[in-house]
Every structure is written in C-alpha cells, then in structure tokens.
Write a structure and sequence with these properties.
single chain, mainly alpha, Rhopdopsin 7-helix transmembrane proteins, 7 helices, two-stranded antiparallel sheet
Length: 193
C-alpha cells in the first residue's frame, strides 16, 4: 500500500517535470524511471520495517484474513508510529500530488492563454484528469486512514472487524485505478484503443 502511495506521488512529480519542460521525456533512457522505482520502494521499506524492530507491531487486520499495523494498540510507541505513517505516507504524498498536478495545470493554463482554441480543450482534459485522480486517491486512502486513526485513538471496539474490511479493500485496490483513469482520460492513449 505504501509503495502505491509513494509511486503515485513520484509519478505525479515526474509527470509535472516532463510536461513543464524541467526534464525532457527520453524514451530510451530508463535511468530516471529506475531511480523513481528504487526511491519509492526504499522509502516504503523505511516506513514498513520499523514494526519488525519494535516500533509498533504487525497483527491481523479486520476479520483476521490480512495483516497490517496493529491499529488497536493504545500505547505511545504504537500511536507515534501511526501518526508518522499518516503524515509521511499519506499527507506528504498527497501534498506532492496536489502540488505537482496544480503546477501542471497552471503551466497548461499559461500555454492555453497563448493558444486559445486547442489549449482550452487540453486544459479541460487535464483538469478533469487531475480532479479525478485526486478524488480517487482520497476515496481510496482517506477511509483507511480514518479507520486506522479511529482504531488507534478512539474508544476500544469502536471499529469492528467488519467495518474495517471495505476501507482496507479500497486502499489495497488503489493501484488499479490510476492506469484506468489515465487510459480513458488521455487522448493519445484512447486514440490507440
């Protein structure tokens, strides 16, 4: 899940850099791609390994069919880890995504001011894609984060195993949605289909 979140942030930043011209799109050089992949996995590993070394712990999630961070432990060790996960693995990637797509949209608007006709359609398509991606990101991850925070800081037993199933499934399925959004809202890709 964290790899998914970080990958979305890295992809949004890379897309911003490529579209605004701060980095050229080079289809023959995979160095930047591999760097993004390695950074995503390294960052994710850095945030998923601490429970193995005593900062919080892993345990059954929901009805006991999956494993996740022990959301129900109320000690300071666990609560501090949950807060750090929330900030560094949800809030910061979300800020990077909003920043990157916001700057990309601003750049497209500037170009649209020069090319009135074609630029306006492109601006609208990108705006729709950005809004849909951000909404999907929030729909997938916000319920899961909310359930985790309530389970950690709320009354014991407030979140039942059954109530945690849907947010968990939404979060774990989030990697599927962005390629679908990109395919259907990207004019170049949809022309090939």
């Amino acid at each position: 899940g964290i790899v998914s979140l970080i990958s979305l942030a890295v992809l949004s930043y890379e897309r911003y850099c490529t579209m605004t011209g701060t980095a050229k799109a080079d289809t023959t050089n995979y160095r930047k791609t591999w760097t993004g992949i390695v950074l995503s996995w390294t960052y994710s590993l850095a945030w998923t390994a601490p429970p193995l070394f005593g900062w919080s712990s892993y345990g059954p999630e929901g009805p006991g069919t999956t494993c996740s961070v022990n959301w129900h432990s109320k000690d300071a060790n666990n609560a501090s880890y949950i807060v750090c996960l929330f900030v560094f693995c949800l809030v910061i990637p979300f800020v990077v995504i909003v920043y990157s797509y916001g700057k990309l949209l601003c750049a497209v608007r500037q170009v649209s001011g020069i090319n009135k006709g074609m630029g306006r359609n492109r601006e609208q398509r990108i705006l729709i894609m950005v809004v849909v991606m951000v909404i999907c990101f929030l729909l997938c991850w916000l319920p899961y984060a909310t359930v985790a925070l309530i389970a950690t800081f709320g009354k014991p037993g407030l979140i039942t195993p059954a109530a945690s199933i849907i947010p968990s499934l939404l979060a774990k399925s989030s990697t599927v949605y962005n390629p679908i959004i990109y395919i259907f809202l990207n004019k170049q890709v949809s022309k090939m289909l």
